[in-house]
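Severity: low
Component: inverse-folding endpoint
Summary: output formatting inconsistent between runs
Steps to reproduce: submit the following structure tokens with default settings.
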């Protein structure tokens, strides 16, 4: 079958069984467990109920437009890391049909409006990095080091996300009701940590990310 390569526009021709094994390995190594039931329908209802309580955050006439009409479980896509040993996968979860897709985009934009983050160490793209490096006098005694986080998505601490959001909302003196409604919605959105995986045998399996770090 044909798969996409990670970080390039190349395509990869790979045996279906081999790709399935790579996905299975990723699932086993990242504390991911199978669910007995697809939670999409109940999750959709939960979002509806919560949005109705967010009167200060979401205008009444906008609520129906922030819910998917026929939501489905997010789907996993596997990109092949051709630049790494053993060619592992980069999992990309397609949330465009998920229950929280539209409301998550809405909430992200509202948080940006409310929070003024000091982006001291942020850059827009690789071109800006090159410009900044050009300003630095680099000698033979300097070293440039790049660092990466392995499987970033599955290692995001939920409680840390909530605490950081509360901290910055408080720091920007956001109205108490608005803050509470943002946190209510954010809590539900980040709970959507599941996806469907078709194992190439036309059998849909729904799995959920585990979060062992929550115990610490």
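Observed output (run 2 of 3):
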């Amino acid at each position: 079958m044909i798969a996409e390569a990670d970080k390039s526009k190349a395509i990869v021709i790979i045996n279906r069984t081999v790709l399935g094994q790579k996905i299975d390995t990723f699932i086993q190594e990242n504390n991911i467990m199978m669910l007995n039931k697809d939670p999409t329908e109940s999750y959709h209802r939960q979002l509806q109920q919560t949005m109705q309580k967010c009167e200060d955050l979401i205008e009444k006439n906008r609520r129906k437009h922030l819910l998917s009409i026929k939501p489905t479980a997010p789907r996993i896509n596997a990109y092949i890391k051709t630049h790494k040993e053993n060619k592992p996968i980069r999992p990309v979860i397609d949330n465009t049909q998920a229950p929280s897709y539209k409301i998550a985009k809405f909430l992200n934009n509202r948080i940006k409006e409310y929070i003024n983050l000091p982006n001291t160490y942020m850059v827009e793209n690789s071109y800006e990095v090159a410009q900044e490096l050009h300003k630095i006098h680099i000698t033979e005694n300097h070293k440039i080091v790049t660092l990466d986080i392995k499987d970033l998505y599955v290692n995001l601490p939920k409680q840390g996300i909530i605490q950081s959001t509360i901290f910055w909302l408080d720091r920007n003196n956001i109205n108490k009701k608005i803050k509470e409604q943002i946190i209510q919605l954010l809590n539900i959105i980040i709970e959507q940590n599941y996806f469907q995986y078709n194992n190439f045998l036309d059998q849909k399996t729904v799995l959920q990310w585990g979060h062992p770090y929550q115990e610490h």
